Amino acid sequence: MSTKKDSLGGLAQPWRFSQGSVIFNVRAIIVGAFQQLGALWKVLLYLYGPIALFFIVLDLISRSSDRITLSYFTRDIAALGHLPFFAGLVSQLGGLLWSATLTLCAFSLFILRKQNPDSTSPRRLLLWAILLTAVLLFDDYFQLHEEIGPDYLHISEKVIELGYMVIGLIFLLANFGEIMSSEYLLLGLALVLFGGSAFLDGAHLDKFDQYSVFFSEQFQTFLEDGLKFVGITTWLTYFARYAYQKINARESDPAAIPRSLQN
């Protein structure tokens, strides 16, 4: 069976369509796999090399302590703590939304750079969004300001929170013009929700007699985490709409797209 050229990589396609069914050619599959291996070996090296190194480091850490096993790093938290599957549901969903925002901004930055290298302001905003989202994602997943900072790095929780505020302020100032030309209401709502969550995290209103009737510890935790979750969804919505609008605007204007990408 003759093989066709793939439009993306110029590699052999190991299949053909015949009356709605796919007929596979084993030889073509093997040949295609080796062709792809020759083209993708660097990608695979960059992909699996750091992962292998990461697991080696985890193994060395687990061997250095009798209290830490390798499964501590690899198993699900609910399984390790013998908790029900829905434990930490909102927190886990929040982490997924942080990750979605990070991926969205990174991919959009790549697309805009290919479409128009002169799009400085949108790319700067997306780059700052990647940095800020990565920091908040890391903090959310690994409790940086609550545990790692105070207990392991001996940095006060307040100092870390102040650092986040400084980074956020620089983010706003460095991209103020671009933000004001976008749907800034969404971004403003996200920041207000994050601020409300941070306020409740540090206020401990349940400890004050005048507020304890309305703010029990459980209710305050619910409000704190709820505001943060809604803030994350709003953050994702803002950047999803922003990236779509910028990419769509470039695609609808042929003059803004490099000639090499128009063909």
Secondary structure: elements and pairs:
Elements: E1 15-18, E2 21-24, H1 26-63, H2 71-74, H3 77-80, H4 89-115, H5 120-142, H6 144-153, H7 157-174, H8 176-180, H9 184-203, H10 209-212, H11 217-252, H12 259-262
Antiparallel strand pairs: 1-2
Helix pairs in contact: 4-5, 4-11, 5-6, 5-7, 6-7, 9-11
Describe this structure in words.
By secondary structure, the chain is mostly helical. The protein has 2 domains: 60 residues, no CATH class; 176 residues. It is built from 12 helices and 2 strands, in the order ββαααααααααααα. A two-stranded antiparallel sheet has the order 1-2. A hairpin with a 2-residue loop joins β1 and β2. α4 runs antiparallel to α5, α6 packs across α7 and α9 runs antiparallel to α11. The two termini are 31 Å apart. The N terminus and C terminus are likely disordered.
Short précis:
The protein is mainly alpha-helical and 263 residues long.
What's the total number of strands? 2
- Computed CA radius of gyration, to the nearest angstrom: 24 Å
Beta content: under 5%
Run of helices and strands: EEHHHHHHHHHHHH
Give start-end ranges of low-pLDDT stretches.
1-9, 254-263
Structural class, by secondary structure, is mainly alpha
Q: How far apart lie the N and C ends?
A: 31 Å
Oligomeric state of this protein: single chain
Mean pLDDT: 84
Shape call: globular
Helical residues, percent: over 70%
**Biggest sheet layout:** 2 strands, antiparallel
Q: Order of strands across the biggest sheet?
A: 1-2
